[in-house]
């Protein structure tokens, strides 16, 4: 996305001093665009996009945006786009494994190669390629010759291999960061000046291109060696001076590989020039041809940027002629201030802003509303930004305080929507939001006919894809962290407590100062964070999973799930009756009446009157009676009171949270609409709030009673699809335990097989107790459970528990190795990774506090499995709606709870829907063991299990 953002932003700003061209002789200035490199960057950076014919064109769009920027600014007296002509080059004759490991281009990209060449021709820009040579070699040859003739060269690329060319009139422009690359930037990356880059690359190698280098030598070490010895050959001739034995041995054994690597990385400055330099001169475009190409692919924003009207005419202000006077490449202004911002109060101003957003191709969007509940909030205003510092607030429903202060001037709501509707749906304008799901729900519900917003990027999810578990992902926190800017708070403009005023009553100047800043900050965060997705290898996770979840969860929240109110009320009455009976039993056991819900009174009974051991007082002087303490007392003393109190608390919580809570949250449609939080957990799992539907007990009768109240609409059934033992399957996959792999592959009872393995008894002789113990350790081991924890779970001594764990690891050494590897990864890198590559940060792993560090180690063990399970079910969720629609099925996905998905299905389609859901869910990931999904249906959620 960075290519698009920087090119568009530059085109919309007034020219500013440019370090790339300030020093150049603009009378002869050659711009060489690394076309092959740009294609891949644009493809992965831009969201999926198709032209009217359905052909993928996101890379083509990004490419044309860039060309439009250069040509609209008349940058350079000469310009050419350089492409790779073929995969095989002279380097493959030197080393047959060169680039051998590179995968085929994605299917969606393949048709775009030819279209990008067509775009180059349509813009009347010279196109250069030559069989047997890479684009980098041709760039080197043209740049060297042009600079030798006294001209200046700008290479538009961020390819590190081209950095060896910098100097002597040759500069680079990084199209991702839109910043120049001089010798200082090369020195920062490689630790040497440009003329020594090939020497460092020869030693360090390059895994991307399969350049071997010398094993064990990285960039830093290579730079130090070249700094000392000057070049590779001198180094190899003086190996006896290397003091480190392993390093000297590596260099001796791989000397020839280092020489081969140097030949591979050095660009051919004497490569043939397919086109004479004079044919690269900037030409006036054939506007009819350019317009035809842009219209064919639906690139209206590029057409707008170039000022082309429907006839293909350019604006009269544009200079004509075969070689327009070159001007500087404009880069985004550094350090644009946060405000002042525009308040849009007229339709003309709104249209002007929409035109600017279309020209930019990207805009930040935010809403100001009356509530944090998206399904009940009303729209008060819209905040937008099309470039850093270029933000505005569109008030829509601001009110007057009284008769003396009437409502301020605003664009009429329906008229404003008529302008916003096509802009927000324009596929050529990327909309950037923070927590997009909320805004999409508001705009889809509170506007007649709904407002479609697409395509969408979400800075909250970009941050979450990069840094799950590392820090929070709220906009204010990210602004402080990445922009060093503290945004204005909501409290500052509305007040607090009883004095807080609705946002609709905030004066427009204050509302604009606060609201427009949100859009400005969001856009700047996008500029800062979007490029990091590629750098941190998180782009696929974001694009294929997190971003696609936005609309999936929006639709689930809007759908909600039906609740049988009378049945829920009856359940509540039964819970209250049982609580009263438990309370009576508790009082009889204690020998006196007391408030069971009072921790202080309970502590006094347990540790005072009954004299139980192990009581710990907190700062208030009261004994701790949390669930862990009561569980420990129940296990160690055998006294019935702690267990009875735990049962009472469970019923009390269920009644208050799910009986009373659900009744309070029933909407007018008879359904509850939970809010799925997308960026809260450290493992990638979703969380559910208002109401929280993920903490209903699964295996208790009380939990089943709650689930019976969740029902299907008339004529429908609920379908529950649950991944079976998904974390254990991931454990077998990661640890590669042969017996567990076999058990899952053949459909054996995994817990019985574990018991058979660790107790050395035949599978058919495993009894219930042995299986129970195996099940406890199978699940406990994923959470880093200790011998003490296992002893408490099984009601056995610590020594016996330690013996079970030792036997487990002796039978499955791969599991112990995996656990140790996860902990070491966390200590070394600060994060662990799921089997699919997602980074999960473990901040407390280096804590000096032993308790915190121990918790972090357990989190490091568990996170890859929880995170892997989360990604698997998310992959299923993003695929299922489209598959169901393609099959002509009307099933709606309603809930995601842990490893389970809940659907509402027309009764006539249950039989057809079941295999589709099962097939998609079981096919979303290729593991060493099969994924298994259990499917059930029923009138209620409980019946579906």
TrEMBL record:
Catalysed reactions, as listed in the record: DNA(n) + a 2'-deoxyribonucleoside 5'-triphosphate = DNA(n+1) + diphosphate
Keywords (A to Z) from UniProt: DNA damage, DNA repair, DNA replication, DNA-binding, DNA-directed DNA polymerase, Exonuclease, Hydrolase, Nuclease, Nucleotidyltransferase, Transferase
Domain 3'-5' exonuclease: 341-534
Composition bias type Basic and acidic residues, residue spans: 1-12
Domain of life: Bacteria
GO biological process, one term: double-strand break repair
Residues covered by the DNA-directed DNA polymerase family A palm domain: 703-909
E.C. designation(s): 2.7.7.7
Gene3D superfamilies named in the record: 3.30.70.370, 5' to 3' exonuclease, C-terminal subdomain, 5'-nuclease, Ribonuclease H-like superfamily/Ribonuclease H, Taq DNA Polymerase, Chain T, domain 4
Region ranges (Disordered): 1-21
Residue intervals of the 5'-3' exonuclease domain: 28-283
Matching PANTHER family: DNA POLYMERASE I (PTHR10133), DNA POLYMERASE NU (PTHR10133:SF27)
Function: In addition to polymerase activity, this DNA polymerase exhibits 3'-5' and 5'-3' exonuclease activity.
Self-association state and partner proteins as the record states: Single-chain monomer with multiple functions.
Protein name stated in the entry: DNA polymerase I
Gene: polA
């Amino acid at each position: 996305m960075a290519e698009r953002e920087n090119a568009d932003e530059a085109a919309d700003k007034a020219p500013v001093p440019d370090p790339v061209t300030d020093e150049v002789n603009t009378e002869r200035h050659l711009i060489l665009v690394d076309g092959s490199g740009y294609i891949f960057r644009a493809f992965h950076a831009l969201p999926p996009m198709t032209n009217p014919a359905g052909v993928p064109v996101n890379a083509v769009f990004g490419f044309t945006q860039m060309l439009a920027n250069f040509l609209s600014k008349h940058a350079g007296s000469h310009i050419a786009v350089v492409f790779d002509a073929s995969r095989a080059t002279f380097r493959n004759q030197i080393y047959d494994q060169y680039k051998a490991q590179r995968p085929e281009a994605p299917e969606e990209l393949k048709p775009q190669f030819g279209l990008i060449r067509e775009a180059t021709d349509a813009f009347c820009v010279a196109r250069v390629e030559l069989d047997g040579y890479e684009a980098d070699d041709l760039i080197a040859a043209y740049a060297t010759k042009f600079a030798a003739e006294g001209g200046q060269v700008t290479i538009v690329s961020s390819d590190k291999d081209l950095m060896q060319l910098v100097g002597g009139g040759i500069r680079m422009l990084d199209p991702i960061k839109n910043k120049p690359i001089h010798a200082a930037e090369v020195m920062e990356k490689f630790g040497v000046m440009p003329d020594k880059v090939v020497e460092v690359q020869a030693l360090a190698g390059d895994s991307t291109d399969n350049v071997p280098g010398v094993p064990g030598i990285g960039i830093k070490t290579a730079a130090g060696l070249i700094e000392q010895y000057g070049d590779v050959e001198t180094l190899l001739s003086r190996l006896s001076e290397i003091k480190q034995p392993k390093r000297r041995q590596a260099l001796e054994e791989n000397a020839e590989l280092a020489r081969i690597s140097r030949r591979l990385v050095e660009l051919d400055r004497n490569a043939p020039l397919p086109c004479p330099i004079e044919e690269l001169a900037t030409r006036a475009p054939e506007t009819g041809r350019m317009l035809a190409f842009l219209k064919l692919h639906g690139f209206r924003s590029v057409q707008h940027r170039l000022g082309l009207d429907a006839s293909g005419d350019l604006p009269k202000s544009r200079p004509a002629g075969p070689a327009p006077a070159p001007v500087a490449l404009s880069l985004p202004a550094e350090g644009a201030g946060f405000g002042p911002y525009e308040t849009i109060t007229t339709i003309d101003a709104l249209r002007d802003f929409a035109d600017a957003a279309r020209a930019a191709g990207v805009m930040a969007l935010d809403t100001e509303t009356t509530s944090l509940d998206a399904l009940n909030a009303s729209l008060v205003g819209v905040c937008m930004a099309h470039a850093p510092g270029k933000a505005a607030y569109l008030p829509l429903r601001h009110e007057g305080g009284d008769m003396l202060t009437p409502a301020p001037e605003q664009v009429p709501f329906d008229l404003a929507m008529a302008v916003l509707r096509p802009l927000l749906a324009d596929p050529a304008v990327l909309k950037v939001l923070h927590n997009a799901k909320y805004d999409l729900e508001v705009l889809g519900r509170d506007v007649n006919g709904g407002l479609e917003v697409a395509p969408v990027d979400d800075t909250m999810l970009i941050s979450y894809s990069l840094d799950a578990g590392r820090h929070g992902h709220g906009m204010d926190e990210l602004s402080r962290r990445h922009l060093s800017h503290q945004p204005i708070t909501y409290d500052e403009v509305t007040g607090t407590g009883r004095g807080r005023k609705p946002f609709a009553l905030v004066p427009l100047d204050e509302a604009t100062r606060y609201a427009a800043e949100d859009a400005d900050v969001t856009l700047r965060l996008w500029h800062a964070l979007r490029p990091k997705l590629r750098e941190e290898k998180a782009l696929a996770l974001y694009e294929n999973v997190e971003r696609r979840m936005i609309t999936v969860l929006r639709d689930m929240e809007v759908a909600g799930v039906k609740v049988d109110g009378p049945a829920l009320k009856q359940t509540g009455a039964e819970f209250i009756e049982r609580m009263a009976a438990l309370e009576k039993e508790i009082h009889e056991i204690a020998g006196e009446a007391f408030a069971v819900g009072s921790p202080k009174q309970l502590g006094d009974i347990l540790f005072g009157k009954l004299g139980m051991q192990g009581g710990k007082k907190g700062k208030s002087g009261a004994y701790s009676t949390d669930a862990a303490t009561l569980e420990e007392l129940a296990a160690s003393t055998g006294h019935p009171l702690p267990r009875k109190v735990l049962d009472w608390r469970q019923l009390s919580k269920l009644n208050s949270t799910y009986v009373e809570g659900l009744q309070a949250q029933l909407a007018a449609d008879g359904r509850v609409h939970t809010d799925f939080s997308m960026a809260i957990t450290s493992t990638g799992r979703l969380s559910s709030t208002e109401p929280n539907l993920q903490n209903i007990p699964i295996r208790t009768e009380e939990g089943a009673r709650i689930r019976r109240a969740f029902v299907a609409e008339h004529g429908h059934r609920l379908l529950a699809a649950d991944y079976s033992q998904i974390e254990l399957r991931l454990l077998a996959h990661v640890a590669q335990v042969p017996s567990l792999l076999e058990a899952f592959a053949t459909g054996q009872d995994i817990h019985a097989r574990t018991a058979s393995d660790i107790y050395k008894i035949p599978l058919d002789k495993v009894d219930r107790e042995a299986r129970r113990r195996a099940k406890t350790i199978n699940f406990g081991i994923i959470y880093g459970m200790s011998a003490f924890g296992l002893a408490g779970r099984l009601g056995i001594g610590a020594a016996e528990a330690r013996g079970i764990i030792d036997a487990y690891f002796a039978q499955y050494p791969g599991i112990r190795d995996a656990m140790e590897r996860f902990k070491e990864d966390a200590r070394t890198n600060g994060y662990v990774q799921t089997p699919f590559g997602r980074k999960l940060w473990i901040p407390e792993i280096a804590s000096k506090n032993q308790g915190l560090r121990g918790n972090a180690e357990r989190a490091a063990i568990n996170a890859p499995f929880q995170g892997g399970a989360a990604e698997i079910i998310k992959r299923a969720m993003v695929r299922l709606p489209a598959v169901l629609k393609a099959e002509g099925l009307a099933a709606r996905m309603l809930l995601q709870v842990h490893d389970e998905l809940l659907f509402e299905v027309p009764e006539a389609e249950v039989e057809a829907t079941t295999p589709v859901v099962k097939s998609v869910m079981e096919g979303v990931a290729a593991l060493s063991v099969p994924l298994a999904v259990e499917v059930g249906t029923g009138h209620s959620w409980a019946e579906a299990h």
